[in-house]
Hints:
The chain is an alpha/beta fold.
Amino acid sequence: LLLWPAYRSRRYCLPPLHAYQLESLGLRGIGPERIIPLYPGEFLRFRSVEAFTNPEQGHPGLIRSLAALPEALGIRGVAEAGGSASRYPKRLYISREDARGRRHIGNEAELAALLARRGFVKKIFTGMPIREQMAHMRAAEAVVLPQGAAVVNLAFCRPGTKVLELYSPRFLITLGVNFATVLQLPYAAVV
């Protein structure tokens, strides 16, 4: 959607959005005035509609589109994203300690301490501005992250960034490995 050539001249009918989704649209010039909210159970009629299908998770075309987003937003390097390289760690651990029961890591404190001894800096992306998330991913040489929504941020990694994804044995999806494969990122997983 954000890379579609005619996106600026359109209005969008969307379900209620989270703040980070509104921020994503705003980065491309789509403000709330261009969004028609569609709530569960509502019916709207339009004279004409252009509809996007929901691509399969990890669809190569979707991944390539996401990977092009930093450049489309003018984020070509760390400095353009709002800071110097020293501000962003080269070894990044994306924590979900704030998840509270939703795919959290039971031994989070131990894992964070182990990773810190190996030079990883823990960050929580929840509530972090999207440009800041992109900058963290662009600066990282290695990323450790639990399976979840933050996996989409792999699209913003530089080529060659090493990825270690942490899975729960109760919830296995292949989004991370799909992103790493399409983007040619060295990848490993721990279940």
